[in-house]
Amino acid sequence: MFNKKVNRFFYYFFILLAVILFSEKFIFKTLLLKNNGYIDFTSYYIAADAVKQGGSPYDSIDIKDNHIMNVVKPGDLKRMGISFPVPEKYAYTYPPLLSLLLVPLTLFKYSIALMLWNIINLLFFVLAVYFTLKILSGRPMHMITALTLLLFFGSMPSYETFSLGQVNFLVYALCLLAFALEERGNGKLSAFTLAFASIIKITPAVLLLYFLFFAKKKRYILYFFAFGAGLLLLSGVFIGLPSLYHYLTYIFPKLAGSYLLDNNKALISLFSRIFLENPMVIPLVISRTASNIMTVIIAAGLITITGVVLVRAKKVLSYESRVLAFSTSLVFMLLLQTLLEIHHLIFAFLPLLALIYYSKYKPGIKAIIFIILVMLLNTRGWNAMTYFGSSWWVILLTAPQILGLVLLLILLYREINIQRA
Predict the structure, then answer these.
(1) d(CA 244, CA 96)
(2) pTM as predicted
């Protein structure tokens, strides 16, 4: 499209811009930010401290009126060095493994532990970038490689993951590593890696749909569940099996059920708030039933569509088709999540970049697609229902990233069809 000098200029320009954005957002605003911005890490730290004290990571959790709350005694906050009020709605609702992994950080007061976590999170971030470029076979002096780095360094999903103290970078890197290991023929280690990611955060288990089609051995699924059950039971040994039972039978069902459906931030809960916030039309019990039925229909539709895409991709015997198929599974995972926050969208990096790398579109069209998708995936939603009511189309304004994910899914499907042809 351009001559080599122009390409080289833009390459270094994008790299410089990425470094500036990284320095401004992550070093100054994240590493040096006041402590009360890291809500997610704070919940991790409180849970890990409870384990260190011989308790359970779920000791501070209370559920009232379908809301999971984090209730911590002021004396415990003072002992941990947390000098700001912790919002009740931010409770530790993950499986117990993450709280166990973070117990060493509780040897330090909160402020020091936070600084250490930020540094560790930066390392996970580097791993995520490395695995993404490795899977895409990125060349060092390549325009899209520079855009990749710019996207990673300057995006809202990355910034929110850092500023909340989220564990997303580690989980994303583990998902990519599971794919890479399977490509090298190491299915057992790949299954363990995916199981490890799924016991930290549950949603990576959805990626089993990809491995069901593409794993070289059907035993992959059995390995996954065996390793997952082993990690879960091992966690239960440390926190107490009654505590693990309490999580699996009480907290997790709430988390996976109507508690998050009411948030209406993902495609799977598209009609939830529409029905639940209009009880004057039909009784609330019918409204909730209707929203749950719509949830099942949407989830079944997503599974069917993704399955069709994977079947088509499997018929194309190429590495590129497998990357595109795995990317489709990542988009499917995001659309299927009941609670979709913008920091989860780091999982959309590989799908977006795979589409740009492998697409047969002309460079100009690629650039337009890239810009549109980046804008949609970096845009925070707003409470459009306050202004437009509970119409079905308002979800596109409330969460524009959903529109970006749907568009990305369609483009991936088209690209796989082109490769098949």
Answers:
(1) 8
(2) 0.84
